[in-house]
Amino acid sequence: MVPAIKDRRDVDGCACLQCRSVTAATTRRTILESVLWSATLLRSYPSILAFAIPFVLTRRLLESSLLSLSPLVIGLFEGAITFGLFVFLRAYVGAIVAGELTDVQVSVTDRVRHGLGRLPALFGLALVAVGLFFGVWMLATVVSMIGVGAVLAAPIELSMVPPAVGFGALVVFVSLPFLYLIFKIWIAMEACIVGQYGPLESVRVSWRITGNYGRKLLVILVGLVGSVGFLYAVAFVPDVGGASTLGPVVSAVATSVGEITSVVWFGVYGHLYVQGIVGVDG
Description:
mainly alpha
């Protein structure tokens, strides 16, 4: 059975760390320590790589020209494998995090059952996220149209602003709300998986945690972009050292390592969620 780590207000009875079975070391780990802790999960729980590696290798196979399948079939398979790698495996790692941080032994069967059991809630969370993004897009569109109309009706001095400057300002104005929303709901999946909250409650919990631990999450996201982003950048380099035949090999290896590295960050997200949920008082 995978333990649910919830907000103290959602816990019946005493909500101290001991009664909630959360180890005290969890609250003291720094970002670097949580990354190293998450990396050790790959060694302590070989089943993580046992799931991740087939997903990754299947993605590389589908991206190659070795399979004579129609683009539609390949697209469907790629979608299923991508879902398994970035959704199911994230739920699986979340189950491990919940057990590890509460000193509860969770079997592989229970982890798989938990990951599959949370899929309906995660699907609902995805619908909520889509609704939020659509709302932000509509609001940004309306405000942008008002802004463009105001500029067109402005005096001639303001209307002489270079188009590139105006377009750049519009892109920044529209992008910032989306980036802010992504940031605020980043831990919602962990709230749904580790906290076993429903879709709306997961967004609420993530919003509150990112308010109290926003700086920590920002550093984690910078680390994610720096590590995984670098590997993906290497993967898109067409030629390496002038040897074009090495390009596809280096690209496949770099992309695969980047995807495995993403799995390490799954554990970091779960650890941050637990730190945040036991540290949020109100």
